Amino acid sequence: MAAVDFFEATEKLLEIWFEKPDRDGGSLRSITRDQWKTLLDRVNCQIIGEQHAEAMDSYILSESSMFVTDRRFILKTCGTTTLLDALDAFLRLASAACNLTTIADVFYSRKNFMEPRLQKGPHRSFDSETALLDSFFAPDGAAYALGRLNGDAWYLYTLDRASDARALPASPDQTLEILMTGLDGQVARLFYKSPAHRDDNHVTDVVGLSALFPDAVTEAAMFDPCGYSMNGIRENDDVYYTVHVTPQPSCSYASFETNVPAENYTKLIGDVVDVFKPEKVLVTLFANSSALCGVSINAFDGGGMPGYRRKDRQFYEFVNQYNLTLATFIKEGS
């Protein structure tokens, strides 16, 4: 039985890329806030904050975040949201409002849920999620399970279209995710509403998150009585980072995600882990053949995380020129 204060912080993450149409091409950024609201009603979450930069729009949601560029859509939701229930509506909206109909790539991923029995609809199992995604993307869809089936597992659905030139990466692309459980108690307490917090952005500075990307513009939201979300975007490109924290002792969790290009991510991973001091860490790094980091397995190790030891590491090469490294770490003495 889940604890009274339990919240499923593990996120569902959907990323869709469109090809530029041959003519009369629109932009996903032309979709209005009211249209996004209607779409997100299907997911059971709402927009509570937004930022707009030269190349990207950023939205803080009541359950996580959304990022939109001209032809890329990222939706990340937690709790018992039904993210994939909005897939059909989103594809129809992109076609009708933006004339974007040709999909270049799709990524759907998540860690295993803490309490999967509490999920709704297609999210009760990865098999159900895969079946729904296949109804849109078969025969090109490919589903994968990585990690430990009796421990920390991570699931991925993407496209397998090596023979299709549109699937080849035209520009560098990479995504780093750091998923942390068992947060340090003193750190977790900082993410409870308190008179000491001058505003929702105050915590971003106090815990050191703003120092990770000092050139980013950030917006944060504190939840009542606890919980935290933050999006950071840069003014002149499509680089983002996002952090979400569930501090309750029974289910403490924090996630960090960014697409910032780097040759090596060891220091950044270590800096993020040092903020939260969790018991366990799961890291994934996606990179395509043009990414600055090169092959992802060479782009980080455990050396930047004093006090932690690496448990597992898996490397996967996909036919569409992407590669993925997944690694898990545990605090020494745990």
Give structural notes.
By secondary structure, this protein is α+β, with helices and mostly antiparallel strands. The chain is built from 6 helices and 16 strands. It has a single domain, classed as S-adenosylmethionine decarboxylase, CATH 3.60.90.10. It starts with 11 loop residues before the first strand and ends with a strand.
- Give the biggest sheet: 8 strands, antiparallel
In CATH, what is the homologous superfamily? S-adenosylmethionine decarboxylase
Number of strands: 16
User: What is the radius of gyration?
Assistant: 19 Å
Widest beta sheet: strand line-up: 2-3-4-5-1-6-8-7
The secondary-structure class comes to: alpha+beta
Strand content: 25-35%
**SSE order in H/E notation?**
EHEEEEHEHEEEHHEEEEHEEE
Query: Alpha-carbon distance between the termini?
Result: 24 Å
CATH fold assignment: S-adenosylmethionine decarboxylase
Q: Which regions contain 5 or more consecutive residues with pLDDT less than 50?
A: none
Give the % helix.
10-25%
What tags apply to this protein structure?
334 residues, alpha+beta, S-adenosylmethionine decarboxylase
List the helices and strands and how they pair.
Elements: E1 12-18, H1 33-43, E2 47-52, E3 57-61, E4 64-68, E5 72-77, H2 87-98, E6 103-111, H3 126-137, E7 141-147, E8 153-159, E9 174-181, H4 185-189, H5 202-206, E10 217-222, E11 228-233, E12 240-246, E13 253-258, H6 266-276, E14 280-288, E15 308-317, E16 322-331
Antiparallel strand pairs: 1-5, 1-6, 2-3, 3-4, 4-5, 6-8, 7-8, 9-13, 9-14, 10-11, 11-12, 12-13, 14-16, 15-16
